[in-house]
Amino acid sequence: MLDSEDRIDDPVVAAVVAELKHGPVPSLSVEDRVIGALNRDLKSQRVRSRLHLLARAAAVLLLLSGSIAAAWLGSRRLAGSPETTGSASQPVRFTLQASGLRRVAVVGDFNNWDPRATPMRRHGGTWDITLPLRPGRYRYSFVADDQKYLADPVRPPAGDDDFGTPTSVITVVN
Amino acid sequence: MVTRTILLLSVFGFGSLFAQDSRLQTRLPADVANQVQRLVDSAAQHGLPTEPLVQKALEGQSKGADGGRIVAAVRTLSGQLGEASTTLGPGAPEADVVAGAACLKAGATPEMITELRRLRPEQSLAVPLGVLSDLVALGVDVPKAWEQVHSLAASHGPDTEFLALRDRVSSPNSKPPPGPVQPKLVPSANPPP
User: Fold this and answer.
1) Which of helix, strand or coil describes residue A75?
2) Contact, A133 vs A90, CB < 8 A?
3) pTM (predicted TM-score)
4) Which residues between 81 and 120 in chain B have a beta carbon less than 8 angstroms from any beta carbon of chain A?
5) Cβ(A92)–Cβ(A133) under 8 Å?
């Protein structure tokens, strides 16, 4: 082990030893590069993290908009008015004179053809119900005692009955 | 990862727009509901009204029709809606497309619809088209019904005049809705369960 440069006679060897004693000092430019790289990495992490947040927010918004749209469509479907023109509802009276029946309901495009949805009221031998309907064209039938389908005798028949039972048409205008 | 998440959520979000109609699922057997739903989704993708298709399926269920008949009726209506939509052109109101489909089914020609569109460029055709199909359903032959509807349209008659025309043919001596008449009871093809 060499303790001092004085003990080295060869100037070249002495210079090498002196250099080794200083040790490998990284140049400033290398440090800059390392710190720069680290900074860039940090920045890209921040950018990525922000992108994550943005992506999540966008996804949530997308999901919400999809759900809202679906709910809106659902509410339109529940309204069950395929041919309406979007104006205000008007009261429309449906009547049927028929005796000897226990129950009469009206079914049609306005109530999803559900026999339980709109039972008619009996007044002597006349059954009636008044429904608010938006302007449009509706196909409908009366259902007597849950099994007999009747056309409305005072309104036009539907020309497109695909199921072999009487169907009527009503047109509600503004 | 982020891309996949966005993609999945997008599909889910937009997918909910074409979500299965709960009315079909609850009222129809699963296989029938699925077939009808496919027709409904296809119609939606082509910009056609879908509610009449759902109502047609529900009508069939209400009247006790079997699944095959329901699907056939919905498919036929979907085709008619497509033909009416093509005839009326892009951007036609839903009510016009639906009335046009009924008209075509009644025997009217696409040329008749085009002519009505020409005569009433800014007005809805729903009532004239509806009245045309009503007249045919009431027993008036197509050329005669068309002649009357065309004449009114050419004179720029309002919707109420078309309806009055229909009512004169429907009940020459009375006006609906009062005039209760004892109906003829007709059992449905298949009583509902």
Assistant:
1) helix
2) yes
3) 0.68
4) 93-95, 98-99, 102, 105-106
5) yes
Chain A residues whose CB is inside 8 A of the B102 CB are 137, 159-160
Distance from CA of B111 to the nearest CA of A (A): 20
**CB atoms A163 and B65 under 8 Å:** yes
Are B177 and A148 an interchain contact pair (Cβ–Cβ within 8 Å)? no
DSSP string, B56-93: HHHHHHHTT--HHHHHHHHHHHHHHHHHHHHHH-TT--
Summarize pLDDT for B124-150 with one digit per residue, the tens. 999 999 999 999 999 999 999 999 999
Q: How many Cα atoms occupy the beta-carbon half-sphere of A63 within 13 Å?
A: 12
Q: Is ipTM strictly over 0.85?
A: no
Q: CB–CB of A169 and B176 under 8 A? A: no
| Cβ contact A155:A127 at 8 Å | no
* CA separation, residue B27 to residues A118, A149, B31, B55, B179 (Å): 17, 19, 12, 11, 35
Is the separation of the CB atoms in A137 and B126 below 8 Å?
A: yes
- Rounded to an integer, what distance in angstroms lies between the CA atom of residue B98 and that of residue B50? 10
- Min mean pLDDT across A40-54, A74-88, B119-133 is at A74-88
DSSP, res B188:
-
Q: Which of B24, B105, B186 would you mutate first to test chain A, the one with the most A CBs within 10 A?
A: B186
- Give A113→chain B minimum CA distance, Å: 5
DSSP string over A121-135: EEETTEEEEEEEE-S
